[in-house]
């Protein structure tokens, strides 16, 4: 599985006790933006609801249209 975005600073700011490898559901335009590196995980975090992991506060910026 390819890694397109990482919050490297989180390993310095927090003690990581456990890691998970998961997938994520995205729309087509979001996939293109993530592959282009237009994602920000700086203030994002994971929460568990109903035995599911939820990514909150992640920012996926739209691609600029090419003229």
UniProtKB/TrEMBL annotation:
Family annotation (Gene3D superfamilies): 2.40.280.10
The UniProt record lists the keyword S-adenosyl-L-methionine: no
Matching Pfam families: SmpB
Domain of life, source organism: Bacteria
Gene Ontology CC terms, in alphabetical order: cytosol
Matching PROSITE patterns: SSRP
GO molecular-function term, one example from the UniProt record: RNA binding
Keyword annotations from UniProtKB, A to Z: Cytoplasm, RNA-binding
InterPro entries: SmpB, SsrA-bd_prot, SsrA-bd_prot_CS
GO biological process per UniProt: trans-translation-dependent protein tagging
The name this protein goes by in its record: SsrA-binding protein
Source organism per UniProt: Candidatus Brennerbacteria bacterium CG11_big_fil_rev_8_21_14_0_20_43_10
């Amino acid at each position: 599985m390819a890694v397109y975005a990482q919050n490297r600073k989180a390993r310095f700011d927090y003690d990581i006790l456990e890691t998970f490898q998961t997938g994520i559901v995205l729309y087509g335009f979001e996939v293109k933006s993530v592959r282009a590196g237009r994602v920000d995980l700086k203030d994002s975090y994971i929460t568990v609801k109903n035995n599911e992991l939820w990514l909150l506060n992640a920012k996926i910026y739209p691609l600029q249209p090419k003229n």
